[in-house]
Prior knowledge:
26% of the residues lie in helices and 38% in strands. The strands form two sheets. Strands 3, 4, 5, 6, 7, 8, 9 and 10 form an eight-stranded antiparallel sheet that branches. It has a three-stranded antiparallel sheet with strand order 1-2-11. With 184 residues, it is of the alpha+beta class.
Amino acid sequence: MKLLSGILVLLCxxxxxxxxxxxxxxxxxxEVSVNEAPINSTSSTVYSLKIPPxxxxxxxxxxxxxxxxxxxxxxxxxxxxxxxxxxxxxxxxDPAASRQYxxxxxxxxxxSQIYGDQPQFLNNGGVMVYGTSGDKTLGIYIMxxxxxxxxxxxxxxxxxxxxxxxxxxxMIAGSIQMAIPISK
Length: 184
C-alpha cells in the first residue's frame, strides 16, 4: 500500500512538471536576470528565471563552471542549483541523449541514483530522477535547447522532502528563459 501511495505521489509530481508553464501559478514569485560573465569571463550565458517568494540567488564559479543557487536565507534545509552548459549535440536532446547526459552528470557530480527509482521522461523532452550525495537527497531535472543543456538540481534532507519539493523544482526549471547573447 505504501508503494502505491508513493507511486501516486510521484505521478502527481510528474504531472505538475509536464503541465504547460502557462498553467502554473507564479503569483508572488520574482523574476531575476542572471549574467554569468562577471563571475566567469569565459561564459556569455544570460538568462532569466522566477524564484519563489523569500528566496534569493547567489552565483558561484566552480570547476564545472558557473552555478546559480536559489535559496531561502531563513531556511537552510533546501536549495536549488542551476548549471547551464553548451549543448555539444546542437539540437534538443531526445530521451536517450538526455539519459546519457544525466548519467554523465551524476557520475561527475558523485550522485548515486536512488535504488529502484527510474528516470521520468517528460513531454517537454526533459528527464527527472532522484539521487543521493552525502547526506542529501537530490531531485535532478535536465532539459535542453539546441544551444544549451540546463541542469536544475534540488538538494533536500530526505526523499520525502525531495518529492514534496519537486513541484518547486519543476516551476523554477520551467521558468528559465535563455537570452540571446549580445555580440561584442
